[in-house]
Amino acid sequence: MNIPVIMPPGVAFQNGHFTAENIINKTTHSGDLVGVFHDEAAWLALPANTPIYQVEMLQSAQGEGELFVGTTHLNPGRVGDEFYMTRGHFHQRREQGEVYIGLRGTGLLLLQDEQGKARLEQVSTGSVHIIPGATAHRLINTGSEVLSTLAVWPTIAGHDYAALAQGFALRVVLQDDKIQAKEVQNG
């Protein structure tokens, strides 16, 4: 019997880019991140077409039991005193979790439950982050090079950005030459 051997997609761990055909690419620019950064004047001063992060995803079957695999490449930089970050989201299907693996760069993963309790995890090459269901998540690049992570999540999870219209409970800033987490006072 002659069984065919298929070459699956690959990821270059040094830079997080996929080696496959039909990659889905999406770039998020500063102008797409309305209300994300605390310092609105500094955000408005940044050209709207400034790339903040890029997501690459493998084509995937969709439905119950299927998975997406993607990489996020978050550029270094700041808006005011706040580091570049992803928009961040809950999953529409709150019970769905996600896994992040640090590929390159340094940064933080901001995690927040539905009650607003937040925590930070250090992201670096080889770090593994298990994001439980009902947990919002956002990447923050605190380093001087691109922060890349590999992510795996259920195709049925969806994204809920509206639940975070008031933002996350923490901001990560550079103050007095130190990376600091600041509680956000809403209201």
TrEMBL record:
It catalyses: alpha-D-glucose 6-phosphate = beta-D-fructose 6-phosphate. Gene3D superfamilies: Jelly Rolls. Keywords: Gluconeogenesis, Glycolysis, Isomerase, Metal-binding. The keyword S-adenosyl-L-methionine does not apply. Residues 30-177 form the Glucose-6-phosphate isomerase prokaryote domain. Its EC number is 5.3.1.9. GO terms for molecular function: glucose-6-phosphate isomerase activity; metal ion binding. InterPro entries: G6P_isomerase_prok, GPI/OXD, RmlC-like_jellyroll, RmlC_Cupin_sf. GO terms for cellular component: cytoplasm. It holds the Pfam family GPI. Pathway: Carbohydrate degradation; glycolysis; D-glyceraldehyde 3-phosphate and glycerone phosphate from D-glucose: step 2/4. GO terms for biological process: gluconeogenesis; glycolytic process. It is an enzyme of class 5 (isomerase). It comes from the Bacteria. Belongs to the archaeal-type GPI family. This is glucose-6-phosphate isomerase.
